[in-house]
């Protein structure tokens, strides 16, 4: 299976840290955040990873090289202007191929085991991992019901930024800048999205404060 790490965002809320360093390359316990993804993907047997870049994109190959340190081959997709989640993935589809592929936001940390990925049913376009609603997203993103996402429900969870997708999710899309969320909402309305509610460690590292809190949490766990 191939994987893609979304790393093209500007990281406005992380300024001034991101004025000179892309958010996925910010250090977490002394190691760039994106390296935790590469380690986990490699451990799960993923050998080919696409990383899309825009802001300070030249720093990614300088820091990560060709991926051989982790036993993966990295394909870099540089975007002159960040294409958002949907546009970035759509541009990479020729490289990603026809089989389902895994996509992760480059600015998050989690302890999900990528070695135990679900199999998409024939009619399913996506499988998303959702998490408990954090303080910065108290109402959640999607309704969750019996391991599926539904348009309306009693329980709402937050999208983790990690998903398994079929290329068919992007049928009819055009090249350019567009978000992923409307495609997912349509697929959910068509009952074509399954989900896992992850109860482990997860953090959207969106602000310097969250990065600091995550470091403290991980440091305490190591201790």
UniProtKB/TrEMBL annotation:
Domain Nucleotidyl transferase, by residue range, is 2-137
What is the residue range of the signal peptide feature?
A: none
Keywords for this protein: Nucleotidyltransferase, Transferase
- Molecular function as annotated in GO: nucleotidyltransferase activity
Protein name per Swiss-Prot or TrEMBL? Nucleotidyltransferase family protein
Q: Which organism is it from?
A: Ferrimonas aestuarii
């Amino acid at each position: 299976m191939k994987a893609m790490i979304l790393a093209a965002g500007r990281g406005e809320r992380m300024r001034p840290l991101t004025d000179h360093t892309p958010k996925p390359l910010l250090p977490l316990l002394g190691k760039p955040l994106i390296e935790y993804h590469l380690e986990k993907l490699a451990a799960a047997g993923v050998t080919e990873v696409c990383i899309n870049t825009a802001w300070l994109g030249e720093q990614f190959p300088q820091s990560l090289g060709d991926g051989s340190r982790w036993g993966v081959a990295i394909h870099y997709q540089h975007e002159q202007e960040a294409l958002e989640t949907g546009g970035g993935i759509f541009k990479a589809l020729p490289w990603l191929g026809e089989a389902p592929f895994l996509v992760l936001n480059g600015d998050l940390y989690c302890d999900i085991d990528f070695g135990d990925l679900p199999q998409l049913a024939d009619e399913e376009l996506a499988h998303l991992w959702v998490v408990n609603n954090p303080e910065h997203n108290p109402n959640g993103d999607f309704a969750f019901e019996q391991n599926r996402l539904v348009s309306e429900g009693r329980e709402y969870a937050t999208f983790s930024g990690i998903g398994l997708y079929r290329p068919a999710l992007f049928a009819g899309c055009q090249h350019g800048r567009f978000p992923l969320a409307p495609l997912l909402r349509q697929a959910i309305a068509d009952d074509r999205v399954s989900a896992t509610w992850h109860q482990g460690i997860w953090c959207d590292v969106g602000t310097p404060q969250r990065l600091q809190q995550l470091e403290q949490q991980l440091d305490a766990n190591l201790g």
